[in-house]
Amino acid sequence: MRINIPAYALYGEQSEVNWNNFFNMEWISRRSRVYDWRIDPHLHHNLIQVLFIQHGAVDVLLNYTRSTAHSPCLILVPMQTVHSLHYTPDVEGLTITAAQEPVESIARQILPDMLTLMHQPAVIPLNHKDDNEKIFALYQAIERELRIPVVGQIALCTSLFSVLFINIMRISHMLQHPCPDNNCSRKASQIDKFLDIVEQKFRMRLSISDYANEMAMTPGHLSRLCRITLGMSGLDVINMRVIQEAQRELVFTSKTIKQLASTLGFADEAYFTRFFRKHVSMSPRNFRMQATQKIFRPEANPTILP
User: Fold this and answer.
1) Percent of the chain beyond pLDDT 70?
2) What end-to-end distance do the CA atoms of the chain give, in Å?
């Protein structure tokens, strides 16, 4: 079975190749009502979304996890995240859609810890009234800025969007070990380079030494850098990217396990199956069956994500 996952700019609109200067905000009900409150599985190549659910509830799929999010809450949808949304008819809130690269550029300079948040799909409950009011105030500020075209509009909105992420980090307790200012920029730049190389070469099954050589540092230094900045070893980063791609292709393509193993650089199907089972705790075949059923089963068991 093959399932085609469309890529959009905004849902239902054709995506462009590059969205380096894109920023949009809209009320959830305006677009969702047209589609009978159901947004089918899709992704955005270069765009990140943050949905602020003020009223109602939504059955949300983020990659391979389905949950029910109750208002008030935020839903983070980084670029390349397969997601679907089935709203209750009383839902209301706001969605910000922005080019992810400019927001990440700001994060690298002011708070590199934000990069982890920007790559992690999540539902974040707003359990405290103060948190809800702070988030709504930021959305209102962005909405006011977007009403009339003015010089620097996108730049200011992108900056306010970054402030939104700082508040999300505080709410979700993700800010744990801020690094000294004089080290942040260099470490962020190195990690950024490493992630770029991983994205280009993760299908080649290179060793951590190969990546370290390309970055002109020792394997130990690369892994320490990853642990300090990302909270995991360099090898974990590489393996996580391989697993992410394997999961995506198992669910959304018709490749056999053997074909998938080959495209991901594994010598044989058995080796790939052992690797996948180690990281996912089930075989590729079972994952495909369970994930496909979960994604396309409307009555999926709902639980809110932590």
Assistant:
1) 83
2) 32
Question: What letter represents residue 152's amino acid?
Answer: G
| CA 211 – CA 222 distance, rounded (Å) | 9
Question: For residue 16, what is the DSSP state?
Answer: P
Which CATH fold topology does 23-171 show? Jelly Rolls (2.60.120)
- Please say whether the beta carbons of 28 and 50 come within 8 A: no
Going by pLDDT thresholds of 50, 70 and 90, the confidence category of residue 231 is: low
Q: Give the Å distances, CA to CA, from 300 to 59, 61, 66.
A: 9, 10, 7
pLDDT digits (tens, 9 = 90+) for 142-170: 999 988 888 888 889 999 999 999 999 88
DSSP 8: B
Sheet holding 38-42, edge to edge: 38-42, 83-87, 57-62, 65-70
- Other CB atoms within 10 A of residue 157 CB: 20
DSSP-assigned letter for residue 120: -
C-alpha–C-alpha distance, residues 264 and 262, integer Å: 5
Contact of 88 with 272, CB cutoff 8 Å: no
Residue with tokens 């992108």: 158
Task: Report the DSSP beta bridge partners of residue 48.
Answer: 98
Mean pLDDT for 4-8 is 50
Going by their DSSP bridges, the two strands 92-99 and 23-27 should be labelled as antiparallel
Q: Which CATH architecture has domain 181-295?
A: Orthogonal Bundle (1.10)
Distance CA 191, CA 197 (A): 10
Largest pairwise CA distance in the chain: 59
**181-295 and 23-171 share a CATH fold:** no
For the chain, the domains span: 23-171, 181-295
CA distances in angstroms from 117 to 75, 164, 167, listed in the order given: 12, 12, 11
Residue for token pair 């979960």 = 294
Q: Using CA atoms, how far apart are residues 9 and 11, in angstroms rounded to an integer?
A: 6
